[in-house]
């Protein structure tokens, strides 16, 4: 039995779909089994008897975390510590998701797993603290750092762009932050691969879409592909701007491209080019009758 914690979030819902389609047995929980309560976690674990735990729960409001770092730390550090203690007490491997925000964004070459961490935001600090707790408590873990996540469930950049492109004649998008978008399906594909292969190559891994782009270039592709599929119904000019022109409470990393070499070597898992995943995602939106 696989226990998906945080099953009502963007990733947790996609993972639940993917596990169902693959015919794997799983149980999902969200806020009703509070990760801040060890007792609640233990009680539920006694009913589930999990063979795997996948933690998709987190505090993910990046800008709001600047004002409420303690709340973010509770979930992203203490919550993870509770799950890790549960996992070690039951000797169950734990898959946990982390983020490119643990880096300072100053690199100009793809970031390997052992690159120095220097988070510049409250969210990044709390996610790094969660990683550190997990490493200290339970070695049988897979920490997967990902970036620029989007998918059919939850608020995300692709859906926001489609909505803006349908309602405005012009949008401006930052062109000085480089990374790679990650479709939730690609991440859940890796999670299923790790579970199926069941290898003891525990540790920290990076996963994002293959290739790289800026948010502006990503938006241009969303527009081009959206127009082709009539998901964008009228002309909209997409113009570049700088991060300074688009201030946010939490400063975004200028560079967060993740190296995928380690994950490809360990699990022979090759993420698709980000443009191919975007096309598949937009096709899936068409199939479900367009989300927006
Ligand atoms: N989204 C991105 O762009 C991105 C990028 C890199 C890494 N990540 C990481 O990927 C993972 C999944 O992200 P996501 O976007 O799917 O997150 P999400 O949509 O915010 O989902 C998180 C889920 O955890 C739940 N939760 C909150 N507090 C809880 C508690 N005390 N006990 C149990 N569950 C609780 C949330 O409920 P509520 O909604 O009610 O709060 C929500 O259903 C996270 O670890 C995140 O840090 C995300």
TrEMBL record:
KW Signal (keyword) present: no
Keywords: NADP, Oxidoreductase
One record GO biological process: dTDP-rhamnose biosynthetic process
InterPro entries, per the entry: dTDP_dehydrorham_reduct, NAD(P)-bd_dom_sf, RmlD-like-bd
Catalytic EC class: oxidoreductase
UniProt keyword Oxidoreductase present: yes
Pathway membership: Carbohydrate biosynthesis; dTDP-L-rhamnose biosynthesis
GO annotations of cellular component type: cytosol
SUPFAM superfamilies registered for this protein in UniProt: NAD(P)-binding Rossmann-fold domains (SSF51735)
E.C. code: 1.1.1.133
GO MF annotation: an example: dTDP-4-dehydrorhamnose reductase activity
Reaction catalysis annotation: dTDP-beta-L-rhamnose + NADP(+) = dTDP-4-dehydro-beta-L-rhamnose + NADPH + H(+)
Segments forming a coiled coil: none
Residue intervals of the RmlD-like substrate binding domain: 2-285
CDD domains assigned to the protein according to its UniProt record, in alphabetical order: dTDP_HR_like_SDR_e (cd05254)
Family, as annotated: Belongs to the dTDP-4-dehydrorhamnose reductase family.
Its job: Catalyzes the reduction of dTDP-6-deoxy-L-lyxo-4-hexulose to yield dTDP-L-rhamnose.
Name of the molecule in the record: dTDP-4-dehydrorhamnose reductase
Organism per entry: Sediminispirochaeta smaragdinae (strain DSM 11293 / JCM 15392 / SEBR 4228) (Spirochaeta smaragdinae)
């Amino acid at each position: 039995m696989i226990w998906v914690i945080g099953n009502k979030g963007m990733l947790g819902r996609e993972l639940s779909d993917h596990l169902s389609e693959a015919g794997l047995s799983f149980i999902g929980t969200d806020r009703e089994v509070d990760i801040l309560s060890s007792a609640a976690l233990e009680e539920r674990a006694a009913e589930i008897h999990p063979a795997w735990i996948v933690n998709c729960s987190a505090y993910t409001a990046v800008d709001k975390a600047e004002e409420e770092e303690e709340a973010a730390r509770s979930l992203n550090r203490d919550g993870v510590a509770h799950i890790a203690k549960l996992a070690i007490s039951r000797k169950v491997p734990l898959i946990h998701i982390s983020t490119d925000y643990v880096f300072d964004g100053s690199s100009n070459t793809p970031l390997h797993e052992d690159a120095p961490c220097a988070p510049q935001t409250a969210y990044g600090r709390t996610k790094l603290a969660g990683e550190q707790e997990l490493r200290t408590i339970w070695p049988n873990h897979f920490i997967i750092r990902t970036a620029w996540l989007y998918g059919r469930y939850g608020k995300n950049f692709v859906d926001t762009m489609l909505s803006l492109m349908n309602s405005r004649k012009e949008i401006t998008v930052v062109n000085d932050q480089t990374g790679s978008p990650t479709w939730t399906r690609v991440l859940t594909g890796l999670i299923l691969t790790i579970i199926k292969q069941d290898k003891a190559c525990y540790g920290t891994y990076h996963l994002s879409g293959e290739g790289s782009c800026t948010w502006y270039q990503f938006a241009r592709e969303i527009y081009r592909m959206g127009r082709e599929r009539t998901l964008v119904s009228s002309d909209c000019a997409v113009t570049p701007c700088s991060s300074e022109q688009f201030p946010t409470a939490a400063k975004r990393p200028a560079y967060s491209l993740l190296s995928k070499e380690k994950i490809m070597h360990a699990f022979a898992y090759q993420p698709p080019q980000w443009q191919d995943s975007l096309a598949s995602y937009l096709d899936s939106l068409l199939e479900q009758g367009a989300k927006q």
